[in-house]
Design goal:
Layout lengths: L2 H80 L10
């Protein structure tokens, strides 16, 4: 091999090694970006779930209040009809 071809081979090897290491850095940067995006998505989903849990709790409270109101209304209906019934005895 001539000196020129040895130098070319060494130069191309060095350039290849640098290109390979640069591509690893680029892949590492892309991976870091993906991890940051995943962390943001996880944080947003956690915040959203917290809102959903809060709304669910409020809904359960309102449902219990509604059921109590319906029960009270049923009791009031039953009481109001008992004094409105006509006597069934012929002595009135």
């Amino acid at each position: 091999m001539s000196k020129l071809s040895k130098k070319s081979l060494i130069a191309s090897t060095i350039i290849g090694a640098l290109a390979f290491s640069a591509s690893n850095f680029a892949a590492a940067d892309a991976l870091t970006d993906l991890q940051k995006a995943e962390a943001q998505i996880f944080k947003a989903s956690s915040k959203s779930q917290s809102k959903i849990d809060n709304i669910y709790g409020q809904t359960q409270e309102l449902l219990a209040e509604y059921r109590n109101t319906v029960d009270e209304a049923d009791v009031l209906k039953a009481v109001s009809y008992t004094h409105l019934t006509l006597p069934t005895t012929p002595y009135v």
